[in-house]
Design brief:
Elements: H1 15-36, H2 43-56, E1 60-64, H3 67-77, E2 85-88, H4 95-102, E3 106-109, E4 132-136, H5 147-157, E5 160-164, E6 172-173, E7 176-177, E8 184-188, E9 202-206, H6 209-218, H7 240-250, H8 253-273, E10 289-290, E11 296-299, H9 302-314, H10 344-352, E12 353-356, H11 364-381, H12 385-388
Parallel strand pairs: 2-3, 2-4, 4-5, 5-8
Antiparallel strand pairs: 1-9, 6-7, 6-10, 8-9, 11-12
Bound molecules: pyridoxal-5'-phosphate (PLP).
């Protein structure tokens, strides 16, 4: 018996559908790790490191415990610490600024470009001081930041560029992959990312061999060789079960990325077909970018966004808000002294963005249900008319 479309549940993310499609490969990979009883680092992890580095076009990949650590470890390897400043976007997942804070350095925010949600290079130079050491551009939702402009600024001022590529594995900029667009990059394999493990995992990529060695040492308590500690590091190891799962999934990543792009294209067509493409702001792929759509994020007038989200939830359509509070207004960063109005474009995005269901297996029928439901809400609530008036 098939469900009627009106009662269809459309989750924001459906990891079970992906597992179903590769169950045999995954189960065999897991069984092989269990048989080996080799759980921490080891051949699966070094295999994944080589494969992710090759996939991105980087010379070195260093696996670690999470995407958050993949941001923190290179900052520490660069000896960023108290008295230093690191420039980043106020519109990202918390870990971007959290990593800066954990080193003792000060996060310095620069507002975003509304169309791409990424840091605005035109505003970076005004934020640079003699204490600035690093710029962390975030490739939000799966589209890279404007790296040509960012790298030019970094070069002029002798700054290091660390990509937050957590949402952007496979994304390209002028034909080059995320992970090779700065001096180093941080990837996350959190389950909801485009390449997601069965738990937490992350990786640093870089072409800088000294940096790679230091990150690799920091993830094992600063130890090299065994029981000789040069500095105090962390336990931030990647485990073999995660690596085995990720190696299987990496083989499917390009096909999944193409499927995500098709889902994005269908969403856009559906918004036009429903006659509501001008009532919301749809995501755009900028020239010379290859967007991998970790998220498909629309903007809706702030006075209707939360009501739309609740209406969709009542129809069992899952959505998310990435992110409802910009980083400069988080309570834990209160000592930075920011207030509402400091980064108005990030603040507006926080009130207006809505991420629709997005995963490679999402069907056209489910998407039609999502956009049809949005259209009914928008027409009933006259969304967008305030803006036009
Ligand atoms: C997911 C994410 C992180 C952190 O990754 P974890 O693996 O969850 O620690 C960092 N930055 C961005 C932009 C992310 O989306």
């Amino acid at each position: 018996m098939s469900l009627s479309i009106e009662s269809q549940r459309v989750p924001a993310l459906d990891l079970k559908a992906q597992y179903e499609s590769i169950r045999d490969e995954i189960d065999a990979a897991l069984r092989s790790v269990v048989e080996s009883q080799y759980f921490i680092l080891g051949p699966e992890v070094s295999g994944l490191e080589a494969e992710v580095a090759a996939y991105s076009g980087a010379e070195h990949g260093i696996g670690c415990a999470s995407g958050s650590d993949a941001l923190l470890l290179p900052l520490l390897a660069l000896e960023v610490g108290p008295g230093d400043e690191v420039i980043t976007s106020p519109y990202s997942f918390f870990a971007t600024a959290g990593a800066i804070w954990r080193t003792g350095a000060k996060p310095v925010f620069v507002d975003i470009i509304p169309g791409s949600y990424n840091i605005d290079p035109a505003k970076i130079e005004a934020a640079i001081t003699p204490r600035t050491k690093v710029i962390i551009p975030v490739h939000l939702y799966g589209q890279t930041a404007d790296m040509t402009a960012i790298n030019a600024i970094a070069e002029r001022h002798g700054l290091f560029v660390l990509e937050d590529a957590a949402q952007a594995i496979g994304a390209k900029y002028h034909g080059r992959s995320a992970g090779t667009l700065g001096h180093a990059a941080a990837f996350s394999f959190y389950p909801s990312k485009n390449l997601g493990g069965f738990g937490d995992a992350g990786m640093v990529t870089t072409n800088d061999v000294e940096l790679a060695k230091r990150v690799a040492r920091l993830r094992v308590h600063g130890m090299e060789p065994k029981y000789h500690h040069h500095e105090v590091g962390f336990n931030s190891r990647l485990d073999a079960i995660q690596a085995a799962v990720l190696r299987v999934k990496l083989r499917h990543l390009d096909a999944w990325t193409e499927a995500r792009r098709l889902v994005a294209e269908r969403y856009k067509n559906l918004f036009f077909a429903e006659g509501i493409a001008d009532k919301v702001v749809l995501p755009t792929e900028q020239a010379d970018h290859y967007h991998v759509f970790n998220q498909f994020v629309i903007r809706v007038d702030a006075q209707h966004r939360d009501a739309l989200r609740a209406d969709l939830a009542s129809k069992h359509i899952g959505t998310e808000i990435y992110y409802p509070i910009p980083l400069h207004l988080q309570v834990c960063f209160g000592s930075l002294g920011h207030k509402a109005g400091d980064f108005p474009l990030a603040e507006a995005a926080a009130l207006e963005t809505l991420a629709l269901p997005m995963y490679p297996e999402l069907t056209e029928a489910a998407q039609a249900h999502v956009v049809g439901s949005i259209a009914r809400f928008i027409k009933a609530a006259a969304v967008g008319n305030e803006r036009a008036a």
